[in-house]
Amino acid sequence: MTEKNILKRLLAWLSGLSFRTGVAVAAICALCYILSFAQMLLPISVAAKGTLWVVFYGLAKASQYTAIAILGKAGIARLRKSFRKAA
Length: 87
Fold this sequence. Notes:
The protein has 87 residues and is mainly alpha-helical. It has helices at residues 3-15, 19-38, 46-86. It contains 3 helices and no strands.
């Protein structure tokens, strides 16, 4: 299998997951973003802070793109609509 075929199969599998799964992955994304910057307040070395930032920021980006692939255009519109109703 080529890389394109593998990517297409992965995207097809992700888009088949439920809306709730996409929202959960998006929540994990938000948590990772918060952790990537909140760890700067810890009394640890600069090297450890940099390493933690790279790890958590990378996890946030990976989960962000995964959530977008799961939700799709319609799911993101649905999520925005629910936030507008809440506000």
